[in-house]
Structures are given as C-alpha cells and as structure tokens.
C-alpha cells in the first residue's frame, strides 16, 4: 500500500538559505544532493508526497531535473516563493498536481504553505511549512519545514500517531 508524505521549504538552488537557517551544507550542490538522497531513502515510486511550498529557486530546466530524480507522485501547494511562477510552469517542471490554495486531506488536515489561523475550538490540524525552524505551540499545528525533519519527507502516519495517542486495548 502506498505511503503518504509531507514536506516543505527545500529552497533548491537558494544559496543564502544555508546561512539564513544554519543548514549543515557546504554548498548549494551539497544541499541539493543530500536532500534528493534523503527524499528517495523514504519515498518509493508508488508513494504520494505533498510538498507544501518553496520548492526551487532554479530555472525550469534545473528544477525539472531535480523533480525527475525525486520518487513518488508529487503534489505541490504553492509557497510564497513559488507563486511568481504559474501552475503550468510547475506542472511542466514535473509536479503531478499543483494547487494555488491549501488542500484539505482526510477531511481533518489542512495542508498549507503558511500556517493558517486555527482557534482552539476547531477540530482540525494545520500541516504547514514557511516558518522553517520555528514552531507554533499546540497540537493543531505541525510544521513540516525540512529543517525540523532532517531534510526528509515525513510520513502522514507518523504525524497522525503523534497527534492521536494509541488507545490501550
């Protein structure tokens, strides 16, 4: 059975992000290769990945080359740095689906780039990126920026298991 993963904020080709976020890479090429390896170490070709934005700062040809190396069926929710390019640009780059807006997954999870307003009475969880190494307090927010997950897509099942404690038999 295919697994479902979420991740955000790779910033492929963005040299300055290494310093901005204290990423442990010696160069933008080192960052690219490491993040592709970590993606493919967990994602299989039949799996589905929701990328929650800020994927690449590179041109179409270079972005397409990276997307082609990443396993899985890839859905991109556009981030603030992706929105300067059209949906068709991202589809041509190799994403299977592209959304300009947050998605609702499993009837309970809001998948967005930026954190969404969630009051404590709402029975939903917002899985998001955008804020990199920062975290919002509370169980209603899960930040899947690469810095918090060792640059590796996180399985939806592991997120759910952290949110819903196992009931004892």
From TrEMBL:
Highest taxon in the source lineage: Bacteria
InterPro entries: Metallo-depent_PP-like
Name of the protein described by the UniProt record: Phosphoesterase
Lineage: Bacteria, Bacillati, Bacillota, Bacilli, Bacillales
């Amino acid at each position: 059975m295919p697994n479902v993963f979420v991740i955000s904020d790779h910033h492929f080709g963005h040299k300055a992000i290494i310093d901005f976020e204290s990423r442990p890479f010696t160069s933008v090429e080192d960052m690219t290769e490491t993040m592709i390896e970590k993606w493919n170490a967990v994602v299989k070709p039949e799996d589905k990945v929701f990328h929650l934005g800020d994927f690449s700062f590179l041109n179409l040809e270079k972005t397409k080359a990276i997307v082609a190396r990443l396993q899985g069926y890839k859905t991109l929710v556009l981030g603030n740095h992706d929105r300067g390019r059209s949906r068709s640009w991202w589809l041509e780059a190799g994403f299977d689906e592209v959304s300009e807006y947050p998605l609702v997954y499993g009837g309970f999870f809001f998948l967005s780039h930026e954190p969404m307003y969630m009051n404590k009475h709402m029975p939903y969880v917002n899985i998001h990126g955008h804020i990199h190494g920062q975290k919002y307090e509370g169980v209603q927010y899960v930040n899947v920026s690469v810095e918090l997950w060792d640059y590796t897509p996180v399985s939806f099942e592991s997120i759910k298991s952290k949110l819903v404690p196992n009931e004892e038999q």
